[in-house]
Amino acid sequence: MSPGRGLGGTREPSIHQLRLLLVLAEELHFGRAAARVYVTQPAFSQQIRSLEQRLGVELVERGGRAVRLTPAGQGLVHEARAVVDAMARLLQAADVHAGTTRGRLRIGSLGAEAAMPYAQAILARLRGGHPDLEIEVRNLTFVDMFSRLGTGEVDAAFLRGPLPPGIQSLHLATETRVACLPADDPLADRDVLTLAQLADRVVVDMPPEVPRAWWDHLTVNPRPDGTPVRFGPVVRDTESMVLAVTQQQAITFLPSAARRLYPRAGLTYVDVPELGVSTAELAWLPENRDKPAVAALREVARQVLQQARTTEPAAPSGVTGAAEHPDGA
Predict the structure, then answer these.
(1) What average pLDDT does this structure show over 151-160?
(2) From CA 152, how far away is CA 149, in angstroms rounded?
(3) 289 pLDDT exceeds 60?
(4) Of 132, 135, 242, 299, whose CB count within 10 A is highest?
């Protein structure tokens, strides 16, 4: 039997060709499908024709750039997906036996969270221990920090608690929180402030896509005496948040690491013990927990935290433990 031929004499399709068929079935457009897999349209079309020749059936009805699957094409898409999924499982099983993690891991980062010492240590060890794993860090805003986990645009994320129900997490660090004030605010020269002293200050607000409970918790709304917070300009990310403060539109509250991560002319950070603490979390969805890349990330994170506890009792940014939260933080 010649290489590449089955028992019946028909050339066997490649996994690559089956993947291209699945992309075409989703896009129903040669141009968009080709762009999605980063090949030219003629090359993509040639691969589909080769697949048709190997299978001995016409898969698509061609009419300009838009295409429709033939009945045979529609019938074979399901089988093609099963073959592609089976190959992925085979490779994953082989990687487990070889102790190797491959593929792509997309990690979200709320603002500068990926720049924190514990996050940098986790990413460095992950890259060193899994050289075949492609790691991409994507910036998240307040608006999409939770939704991108839900849509699968990121596999895991460095976030700040409290996390909403349905998200699992590994606790990375705990630190105090501070008030961010315009430098010429009459209270800016104080070493410590109370919430009562800030009662008349307008606080930046979040877009409606952000869970209200998350922002109310971080702004202590309502205040201990029952007074509601006066909210002002709406911001979508940390940069626009500190900009609103420098422009004297409002104040805000941030983790104490903001002193290092967001130093700006016209800003002052003041301790407010009543704000409580800020928790840093490595988050993922339950259904992604045991995927090889996410499992590797979780294990590396636990190793980094264990080493921090062992070698540095006073770890950077108040690392306190590696306990996983099964649902929220």
Answers:
(1) 94
(2) 5
(3) yes
(4) 242
For 203-259, what is each residue's pLDDT tens digit? 999 999 999 999 999 999 999 999 999 999 999 999 999 999 999 999 999 999 999
Q: Find the length of the chain.
A: 329
The tally of domains found in the chain comes to 3
- Domain boundary pick from 98, 118, 145: 98
- Structure-token match 């909210």, residue found: 231
Burial of 56 (0-12, 13-18, 19+ CB in 10 A): exposed
Mean residue pLDDT of the chain comes to: 88
Sequence-separated (6 or more) residues with CB below 8 Å from residue 172? 116, 118, 119, 158, 280, 281, 282, 301, 305, 319
Residue 316 sits at the vertex; the CA angle it makes with 311 and 319, to the nearest 5 degrees, is: 80
- Which residues fall within 8 angstroms of residue 83, CB to CB, at 6 or more apart? 15, 18
The pair of structure tokens assigned to 23 is 């992309």
75 within domain boundaries: yes
